[in-house]
């Protein structure tokens, strides 16, 4: 199967598995696990924060952050296409009693001016704005990278209004590799950030939430409350450490392959447009005169090519470890066949 569906299909390497299997472990719940401790110190430093906490998923990191930052009845400002709104089962409402206030941005990103307009103030009848979130990179917008300047302005605008900020960094590492800006620069001014180890970094399990010591203490409590405290994360943390040592530079290859696919599919008849490719995601829009996305995806699958339908005439292609130029060529030629016989 030529698989461009999601990074979740990446195979952890033999070396990564071994790093996990033979890692020293302890009781990580109380901070007494050498492998987890090493990862968290490193991740906090990488993300430019005081402290970090290991969790089993990115969704849990986002939801714990929402809960730690907000009180019931408050609003969370997010861009309309973000993961927190679309793929977390209504978590902010269920777990935090928070409402969502969505902004329709451009390619998954909103401006400081749009944020200013969305922030509630003054009138006591209004819900309070409790949190502002950004997603780096913006998944549904095709892995678009928030520019540093825009991130700063958004963080400053929130800060001026005394509202905390959270970054969903599921693919922050892709933004770092593609732009050359350190993660700690991108997260500057954000009160919390999560980074994922199961996307580009190829681990089987693991994400880290980072912030101030005080924030992480509260996040620890909430993680425990929802049953997310894992006792021996050392094996998982060691794999994440291994990924930071060995899998960061190779992310460039994913981006190059996505570029290649973006350029080639752009020339296929029946493809209406391709979102600008900035990292490892290619969003392809089809001419509505032709077949719809679910049909295209099904036909590709019959021919052993896996991609995701992301709208009636839109598919998403994700590149990740193990995908080769050959796989990219197969995808493009099979897509051409589906569209043009
Ligand atoms: C994958 C993803 C998440 C959630 O990560 P899980 O580990 O799958 O829960 C959050 N945000 C974005 C943008 C993602 O792509």
UniProtKB/TrEMBL annotation:
Molecular functions (GO terms): L-allo-threonine aldolase activity
Assigned GO CC terms: cytosol
UniProt enzyme class: lyase
Pfam families (alphabetical): Beta_elim_lyase
Record key words, sorted: Lyase, Pyridoxal phosphate
The EC number(s) this enzyme carries: 4.2.1.-
Required cofactor(s): pyridoxal 5'-phosphate
Domain Aromatic amino acid beta-eliminating lyase/threonine aldolase: 4-286
NCBIfam families xref list: GntG_guanitoxin
Gene: ltaA
Protein name: L-allo-threonine aldolase LtaA
Annotated InterPro entries: ArAA_b-elim_lyase/Thr_aldolase (IPR001597), Low_specificity_L-TA-like (IPR023603), PyrdxlP-dep_Trfase (IPR015424), PyrdxlP-dep_Trfase_major (IPR015421), PyrdxlP-dep_Trfase_small (IPR015422)
Family: Belongs to the threonine aldolase family.
Gene3D superfamilies: Aspartate Aminotransferase, domain 1, Type I PLP-dependent aspartate aminotransferase-like (Major domain)
Biological process according to GO: glycine biosynthetic process; L-threonine catabolic process
Complex formation: Homotetramer.
Residue numbers bearing the N6-(pyridoxal phosphate)lysine modification: 199
């Amino acid at each position: 199967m030529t698989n461009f569906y999601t990074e979740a299909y990446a195979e952890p390497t033999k070396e990564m598995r071994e790093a996990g299997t033979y890692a020293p472990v302890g009781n990580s719940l109380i901070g007494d696990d050498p492998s987890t401790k090493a990862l968290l110190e490193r991740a906090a430093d990488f993300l430019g924060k005081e402290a970090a906490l290991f969790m089993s998923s990115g969704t849990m990191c986002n939801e714990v952050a929402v809960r730690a930052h907000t009180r019931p009845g408050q609003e969370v400002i997010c861009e309309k296409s973000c993961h927190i709104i679309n793929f977390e089962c209504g978590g902010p409402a269920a777990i935090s009693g928070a409402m969502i206030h969505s902004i329709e941005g451009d390619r998954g990103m909103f401006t400081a001016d749009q944020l200013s307009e969305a922030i509630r103030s003054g009138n006591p009848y209004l819900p309070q704005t409790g949190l502002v979130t950004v997603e780096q990179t913006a998944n549904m917008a095709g892995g678009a990278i928030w520019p540093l300047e825009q991130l700063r302005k958004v963080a400053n605008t929130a800060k001026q209004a005394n509202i905390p900020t959270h970054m969903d960094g599921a693919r922050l590492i892709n933004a770092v590799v593609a732009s050359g800006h350190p993660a700690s620069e991108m997260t500057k001014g954000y009160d919390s950030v999560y980074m994922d180890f199961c996307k580009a970094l190829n681990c089987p399990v693991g994400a880290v939430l980072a912030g101030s010591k005080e924030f992480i203490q509260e996040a620890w409590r909430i993680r425990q409350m929802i049953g997310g405290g894992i006792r021996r994360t050392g094996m998982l943390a060691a794999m994440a450490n291994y990924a930071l040592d060995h899998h960061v530079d190779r992310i460039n290859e994913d981006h190059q392959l996505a570029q290649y696919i973006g350029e080639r599919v752009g020339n296929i008849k029946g493809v209406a447009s391709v979102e600008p490719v900035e990292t490892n995601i290619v969003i392809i829009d089809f001419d509505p005169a032709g077949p719809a996305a679910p049909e295209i995806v099904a036909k590709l699958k019959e021919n052993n090519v896996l991609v995701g339908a992301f709208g009636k005439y839109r598919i998403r292609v994700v590149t990740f470890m193990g995908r080769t130029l050959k796989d990219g060529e197969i995808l493009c030629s099979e897509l051409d066949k589906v569209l043009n016989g």
